[in-house]
Amino acid sequence: MAGLESDREIPAALTEVERHEKRTYDYSLRKDGTVSDETADMVDSIHEGLEFPTAEELTTLRRVSDAIPWTAYMIAVVELAERFSYYGASAVFVNYIQQPLPPNSITGAGGLNGQSGALGKGQQMSTGLTTFYQFWSYVMPIAGAYIADSYWGRYKTVCVSVAIAMLGHVIMIISAIPGIIGSNASVGIFILSLVVTGAGAGGFKSNISPLVAEQYRRTKMFISTTKSGERVIVDPSLTTSRIYMYFYLFINIRALVGQIGMVYAEKFVGFWLAYTLPTVVFLLSPLVLWYGHGKYRTSPPTGSVLATAIRIWRYAMRGRWSWNPIKTIQNLTADDFWESAKPSKVIGEKPAWMRFDDNWVEEVRRGFKACSVFLWFPIYWLSYNQLNNNLTSQAATMSTHGLPNDVLSNLDPLALIIFIPLCDLVFYPALVRWRISFKPLQKIAWGFYTGSAAMVWAAVVQYYIYKTNPCGYHAATCVDSDGNPLVSPLNVWIQSGSYVLIAFSEIFASITGLEYAFTKAPKNMRSLVMSMVLFTSAVAAAIGEAFVSLSTDPLLVWNYGSVSVLCGISGIVFWILVRKLNLEEDKLNNMAEGRFD
Question: 115-119, 452-456, 565-569 — which is least confidently predicted?
């Protein structure tokens, strides 16, 4: 399996410890005063016997990732099964909600040339419910993160969330059983299943992502020698990035299989099977969780530190307010904003809640900076979310030649399965060899640009659908005298460009967002910060509700065009604002771990 084999020998001989332990881990941090001499020279058991880079080596040696622990792959399998159930079931939501039950069908199956459907509630309700489901699924991670960090820990929270999501899938199957499907009762049961499944998925998502990255323990850069004799720097941040690359690859392998399989199950058998198969595969998650119990590296709950983090922020704001709003903004964004909140800078008696050291304040500062980056993500997700509803509806107005209209969305995970390994094995290493900097914030900015380009593609396709459809600007409701759909002669594969561009945007923005959240959050706030990343999807879903009025004929060109403009402009403004933060990447990654009592 990719990433399991290491191409270097780690120098771990104890006889070398004395020579290496006096070497400064990161001279730039010591120079800046971020790390004390004592802390910088400290070698813990995880890094015992490793040679740390000098200031010169940090700028001259090539950086590589370390081997990925096998337990990380086990957790990725858990995520793989959960995402199969999530994406496999949701792949048929649009047709289930929007299209009516086909004539003489008791399962919703449309057959080779028919259109599958069940509830017949139209495109606007379809877009509204799928958007609500996404909103709910990405609001719940906040609750899951709080429970994990404060009470249960990540592993137990994941196990309970899996049980809740399983219950939701069973309810979803009931809504599609022949005799119930298509009735008013099926509408209520289906909406209940969305609420229960979304609650389980939310608690799962905020904890599975940090849990997989926690399996890799090293946090400091060190020197290693490859088989060819080249001295390189093993960079933990690159390892974390690689873990999330393959984590995302696992998600999309199962999403691809799940979505394609369920689309054909829906078309030729019925929705009950399209909801049952993902539930069966989901049973793999608790089995792997049980097998790995005691083998995974987990972090115990430490109690809620959110209140303390907010107190630090409020303490640092003292004396920085002004009647002049410009002056206030300058004070709140000053480089020394957090200095006054460090225990070593407090004059006199310290507040009782100040049970941490200066380094933990630096970690909180880093976490707040990461959250400020994530504030921009809702605009990016607004473009991505078009895959879940409007692009599927767009495909239904084109010539599919017997292909289910909701199968084209699988070009997105297919492109990810192809391009994630290429980026990991070819593209990113090539940039490193050529000494071209492509840091996380740069990747995120490019995610915005490619997401914007995907929406431009969709807008152009929609324009030509209107030009070639027999009903012009009413393509979605165009039928002949017998009620059979009349579609544009344009081939549905023309949509491919949008899906491929969105896939690239996910590699740049989504995967990097997970990496950025994990590496920048304090250790005892990782689930919480990860939930903030996921919450941006919920915000995007809420914003998307405002676009529902544009999700109908004849306004769809405006829908895609406005989302493209928003995403493109946001990407430009985002990069302008984070350029300075981008220069601090190494410093932020290599901070000493803080102490919190």
Answer: 115-119
HEC sequence for 155-223: HHHHHHHHHHHHHHHHHHHHHCCCCCCCCHHHHHHHHHHHHHHHHHHHHHHHHHHHHHHCCCCCCCCEE
Q: For 20, what's the count of Cα atoms within 13 Å in the CB-facing half-sphere?
A: 20
Q: What confidence tier does 457 reach under pLDDT thresholds 50, 70, 90? A: very high
**356 - beta bridge partners?**
596
**Contact (CB, 8 A) for 501 and 563:** no
Choose among 517, 197, 486: nearest CA to 372.
Answer: 517
Q: Are 357 and 594 in contact (CB under 8 A)?
A: yes
Confidence check: pLDDT of 171 > 70: yes
Average pLDDT, the chain: 84
Residue 587: pLDDT band with limits 50, 70, 90: confident
Query: What is the rounded CA–CA span in Å between residue 431 and residue 248?
Result: 21
* Whether the bond into 554 is cis, omega within 30 of 0: yes
Q: How many CB atoms lie within 10 A of CB 146?
A: 17
Element (DSSP H or E) covering residue 226: strand 222-226
The whole-angstrom separation of Cα 565 and Cα 452 is: 7
Three-class secondary structure assignment of 56-94: HHHHHCCEECCCCCHHHHHHHHHHHHHHHHHHHHHCCHH
Instruction: List the 222-226 sheet strands across, edge first.
Output: 8-9, 222-226, 231-234, 63-64
Q: Taking the CB of residue 80, how many other CB atoms lie within 10 A of it?
A: 24
Please tell me the pTM assigned to this model. Answer: 0.75
Q: What H or E segment, with its residue span, contains residue 232?
A: strand 231-234
- Give DSSP secondary structure letters for 104-120: T-SS---TTTS---BB-
Cβ count near 6 (within 10 Å): 16
CA distance 293 to 342: 39
Q: Is the distance from CB of 397 to CB of 469 less than 8 angstroms?
A: yes
DSSP 8-state symbol, 129? H
- Helix/strand/coil for 303: coil
Name the residue with tokens 């709140």. 332
